[in-house]
């Protein structure tokens, strides 16, 4: 798997940390937040499973803007050849 040269922005990382620290955050929001934070200071590549979940979040009306922001960040760092 190739290294990713893109990293999560400070703004999105801060949002992700807040989501993870909130006991009322949904499971999917925490999943998106964890993935975004894992790409903050490393060159981890987004996995295909999380890419699929993030894509579904963005296509649905049932998720919050916060969750969609995290999903968008994840997809912006995804493997374009998939």
From TrEMBL:
Q: Taxonomically, which superkingdom? A: Bacteria
Question: Polar residues bias: where?
Answer: 36-48, 66-82
Q: Region entry Disordered: which residue ranges?
A: 32-82
Q: What is this protein called?
A: Uncharacterized protein
In its UniProt entry, the species of origin is given as Parapedobacter indicus
């Amino acid at each position: 798997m190739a290294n990713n040269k893109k990293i999560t922005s400070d703004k999105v990382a801060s949002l992700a940390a807040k989501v993870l620290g909130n006991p009322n955050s949904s499971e999917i929001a925490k999943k998106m937040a964890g993935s975004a934070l894992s790409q903050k200071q490393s060159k981890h590549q987004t996995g295909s499973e999380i890419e699929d979940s993030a894509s579904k979040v963005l296509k649905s009306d049932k998720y919050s803007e916060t969750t969609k922001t995290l999903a968008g960040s994840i997809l912006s760092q995804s493997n374009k050849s998939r």
